[in-house]
Amino acid sequence: MIAAFSIAGAPDDSGSYAVGVAEAVRIVRDSGLPYETNSMFTNIEGEWDEVMAVIGRCVDAMTAVNPRVSLVVKCDIRPGHTGQIEHKAARVQALLDED
Fold it and tell me: CA 96: distance to chain centroid?
């Protein structure tokens, strides 16, 4: 499965969420699961329990320094398929390349 998630605590004085987001991305990176980060979400791929455990660790880290945390999660659950972070984007790009 692929989970796209966005997590944010309180912004810093400039209005940036970067410090908290960087900590969440460190947790995802250190999990060893395939992932990618863009300007709005981090996508992570693996089995349900391992993906949700990583997201849970991100929430724990964020709530340790923020009294309130916002979390958005969207999942693409497709048993028996792996490598979909790359493959889904490649399929779309191949169609665009036909233009």
Answer: 25
**Topology of domain 2-97, per CATH?**
Alpha-Beta Plaits (3.30.70)
- Please state whether 2 falls in left (phi above 0), alpha (psi between -120 and 50) or beta: beta
Per-residue pLDDT of the chain (99 residues; tens, 9 = 90+): 999 999 998 888 898 888 889 999 999 999 999 999 999 999 999 999 999 999 999 999 999 988 899 999 999 999 999 999 988 889 999 999 998
Give DSSP secondary structure letters for the chain: -EEEEEEE----TTS--HHHHHHHHHHHHHHTS-EEE-SS-EEEES-HHHHHHHHHHHHHHHHTT-S--EEEEEEE--TT---HHHHHHHHHHHHHHT-
7 close to 70: Cβ distance less than 8 angstroms: yes
Q: What is the pTM of this model?
A: 0.89
